[in-house]
Amino acid sequence: MAAGRGAEGAHFHRKVRCNGFRWRQLKMPSDGHSIGSSDRSFSFRCNLRSRRRSEQLGSKVQELEASLSSALEKCAAERQGRVRAQQALRKAIAEPRSATLESTSYPLTPIGVVKSCFSARNGTPRQPLLVPLARASLIFDTSRVPPASLEGIEEYSHCWIIYVFHLNTDLEKLWKHPARSKFKAKVRVPRLKGERVGLFSTRSPHRPCPIGLTVAKVDAVNGHMVLLSGVDLVDGTPILDIKPYIPYCDSIQGATVPQWLMGDNSLAVSSVNFSTNFSATLSNCWATKGRTSLYASPEEFQELIKEVLSWDIRSVSQRNSPHVSLVKPSEHTENHNSDEEGSYGDERLAASTRDVLYHLLLEGLEISYRIDGHGNVLVEKATISAGLQKE
């Protein structure tokens, strides 16, 4: 019976996989014709599904190719735009127009300030290194200048200092409205007794961009301070930058200057002497001021006074008319380090005679002196300035 059932109606099972589709469990009849018909039907369905999937993949590939092509075109366009912008920028820089220059500004923030022996512009040397004992401390802003950035400066003997002529009376107008600001094309120079020369052939502080350049001797570096000597900087001067002085490239062999600058001693005085009671007046001031001084003793400070007054610090008009009272209401109207007439000194006509008494401010001390027609200076006394007494 079992064998008969197996012969007549026996069925067998068959597993088929078609082109990656899942396995199907097929119940196959023993009849050969039925098996062939089922195989053909199943194969057709597999081919149909494979064709559809192939079409879907082909469509997806086309979409990706189109997207890639669009991205490449966009990148090429962006690159071309950048190249054109760079070319336009280079052209604008190479061929600046006046309108562009007027609208361009480069704001600079000082990195430090100078504490100098020169309390006012009166008496501040016109050039650097003329007064070797003139000392100053360059104090850096620690919030912007880390002390590590000063390492190595002490290995140089001198440094360049870039600063702002901050006491110019027209400074605010110049910076707020540079296009409307005017400056004198020519200025008077002391060495030519008032004769005018072109502004840019001098070191006058009254310039379109009131920036000064000086050199000083590096004495020491102490934390965030650089101690200097031979300075021509007034107290409170803002500093924009310092750079080391390098002799092989900064010292130019064979450099020439105009004839009027040839005489090194044209502004030197004949002699500097001190009155008999000057030392006593200086000692009285030193008891109050000595603790904060850049100088170790009143004797050293007196040597500074002698070096400063060894040059005629008066203006051209003061030298030409020494007995005319030119009382200035405020030292803030003077021009520091200027080549122009009227830029130095404060002269007052003595009450009893027509002799002029001049005043020099150093470290808050007022030094009174006179100078005769032969260039002989007599330093009379030292007093604490009125401004310092109020403090």
TrEMBL record:
It comes from the Eukaryota. Residues 108-254 form the TsaA-like domain. Keywords: S-adenosyl-L-methionine. Residues 322-345 are annotated as: Disordered. Gene3D superfamilies: YaeB-like (2.40.30.70). Residues 329-345 have a biased composition (Basic and acidic residues). The keyword Metal-binding does not apply. CDD domains: UPF0066 (cd09281). Belongs to the tRNA methyltransferase O family. This is TsaA-like domain-containing protein. It comes from Trapa natans (Water chestnut).
